[in-house]
Specification:
Elements: E1 6-10, H1 13-27, E2 35-40, E3 51-52, H2 56-63, H3 68-74, E4 78-80, E5 82-86, E6 99-103, H4 117-121, H5 131-135, H6 138-143, E7 163-166, H7 168-181, E8 185-188, E9 191-196, E10 202-207, E11 211-213, E12 217-220, H8 227-232, E13 238-239, E14 248-255, E15 267-272, E16 275-281, E17 285-292, H9 299-310, E18 320-323, E19 327-328, E20 333-334, E21 337-339, E22 345-346, H10 353-367, H11 375-402, H12 410-416, H13 423-431, H14 451-460, H15 477-497, H16 501-511
Helix pairs in contact: 1-7, 1-10, 10-11
Length: 518
């Protein structure tokens, strides 16, 4: 069995270059460690419609050595403190709240203070206070369009948890620069064919411009084409169209009406008749797109909804149409090839799982790396881990749709049909009828979303957990009411203390001698 001392990554973009940079840093490529080559075609573009991330990205960017201000400037990046869901619970005009918020900060719990969720369920925070508003400061800060940190806070640090929005094309370019600093070799070439050896492993990759390329480990970052893991090795793709119905998107880049326009510091997700619209604020523009189900509507109707949402600013713009192949490969590592990114799977962008899954795969490859060449046990471990993580994300995303009270279109009625729920989600919801979600419901290492995220969405969607059977176990109502009152007061202070979102970015860039994207 031959030791593995070189890696060939096929495909660039965010998946390829993030994986290359992270592996190079972890495996010491620039210092004589595992050699890494990335081959990418010159004629494959990247759609820079505005990308959302999860807070784990901060640790990844820090690990590969990119200063926060440099990232903000190079990628037109802004801060994301969560997701505001408009009209997901009920249609516009219906009686009741028209939105809920999924913040990234955890529910407040000072040492010795009671857990607040049970007391919120019993109404101790007041009948009109949403869960996220009652237990965190973040909703108040986001509603004021302020940032999650101060300019004096260190890189990737701040009092409120956060992720980013950024331009995906610029992000791939920045990662490519950093990966090459870390020792990655870049080849511009188009893959023509892949050879397999007698055992069915990859023997070589043939390219038009760079000839034959060989390595000990191949990483497939070729996107939906899945040139290695799918076309060459035949790993089957499992569609999720019977669970997650959206399979199309129309995207536009919308300029601000003035250079100093306020920037939202959360993703806006606004439910439509047959899908939803994302609205992401970058430094110089917004990335707006309509994700929808082709089984429930057509492209023309979806475009009309998108233009109606944007208003007059959309008149001179043409949307980019995207086909979404929703699902994943349960076997993402086959012999000497591992898939990362879209080649391994895609789950719709509702909670920004895409880049988080890339981060997870890159981390696993680095930590489990088969230096001795014995890939079989590593592949089995990797495949179990990734399949479990995908399945849990599917449950989380489906919960957003399945708990809707909307019955105004077939799309929402179909989503609310329990027959479309995975068995694992049905079990969770059944348990949560009489108790709230807690950490024992989750296997920490394979979860992308913490229990708090499930709680924010579950109760944002107005799920009814009945605590009558356990009500006498919660005997600290007076303390809980004081905590709720304190959080409300601190929220007002946080709004005063945190700078406006656009001002924060400008201050951070000025401090680093940089300027905002234009």
């Amino acid at each position: 069995m031959k030791a593995i001392d070189d890696i060939l990554i096929v495909g660039g973009g965010t998946a390829g270059w993030l994986t290359a940079a992270f592996l190079a840093q972890q495996l010491g490529t620039a210092h004589g460690g595992v050699r890494i080559t990335l081959v990418e075609s010159s004629d494959i573009g990247i759609i820079g419609v505005g990308e959302g991330t999860f807070p784990s990205i901060r640790g990844t960017l820090s690990a590969i050595g990119i200063p926060e201000a440099r990232f903000l400037q190079a990628c037109s990046a802004t801060f994301k403190q969560g997701v505001r869901f408009n009209h997901w619970v009920r249609p516009p005009g219906a009686e009741g709240s028209d939105h809920y918020f999924h913040p990234f900060s955890l529910p407040s719990q000072r040492p010795g203070a009671p857990e607040l969720l049970p007391y919120w369920l019993m109404g101790e925070a007041g009948p009109e206070r949403a869960f996220a508003e009652a237990v965190t400061l973040q909703k108040a800060v986001v509603e004021a369009r302020h940032g999650p940190k101060r300019v004096t806070d260190g890189d990737y640090l701040g009092p409120l948890n956060y992720a980013y929005h950024f331009d995906a094309g610029r992000f791939a370019g920045l990662l490519a620069e950093q990966a090459q600093v870390l020792g990655v070799q870049r080849l511009i070439a188009t893959v023509d064919r892949v050879d397999l050896d007698e055992q069915g492993a990859i023997a070589a990759v043939h390219t038009r411009e760079a000839g034959v390329l060989r390595a000990g480990l191949y990483v497939d970052c070729s996107g939906f084409h899945a040139r290695l893991i799918g076309e060459a090795l035949g790993s089957p793709f499992t569609s999720l169209n019977d669970v997650l119905f959206v399979d199309r998107a129309l995207a536009m880049q919308v300029p601000y009406d003035r250079p100093d326009a306020p920037i939202a510091s959360c993703t806006l997700s606004t439910a439509q008749e047959n899908g939803w619209i994302w609205d992401i604020g970058l430094q110089e523009r917004r990335g707006i797109g309509h994700v929808y189900s082709s089984r429930h509507t057509d492209d023309d109707a979806a475009e009309r909804e998108l233009r109606r949402y944007i208003g007059s600013a959309a008149e001179a713009l043409s949307p980019r149409k995207l086909t979404l192949n929703v699902g994943y490969r349960e076997t993402q590592w086959v012999k000497n090839c591992v898939a990362v990114g879209l080649s391994g799977g895609f789950l719709e962008p509702l909670e920004s799982s895409g880049i988080g899954l890339i981060e997870t795969a890159a981390y696993l490859i680095a930590q489990l790396f088969p230096f001795d060449g014995d890939t079989a046990p590593v592949a089995r471990h990797f495949n179990r881990f990734m399949a479990d993580r995908y399945a849990r994300i599917v449950d989380f995303i489906k919960m957003h749709y399945g708990l809707t009270q909307r019955r105004d279109t077939a799309f929402w009625r179909d989503n609310a049909d329990p027959a479309s729920f995975p068995d694992s989600l049905r079990d969770k919801l059944a348990m949560w009828r009489h108790r709230p979600p807690q950490r024992l419901d989750f296997i920490t290492d394979v979860e992308m979303y913490l229990p708090a995220s499930w709680q924010y969405v579950l109760y944002g969607m107005e799920y009814d957990t009945l605590l009558q059977g356990a009500r006498h176990a919660w005997r600290r109502a007076d303390e809980a009411r004081r905590e709720f009152s304190t959080i409300a007061q601190l929220g007002a202070h946080a709004v005063r203390d945190m700078p406006r979102h656009r001002d924060l970015i400008d201050q951070m860039l000025n401090r680093a001698g940089l300027k905002m994207a234009a």
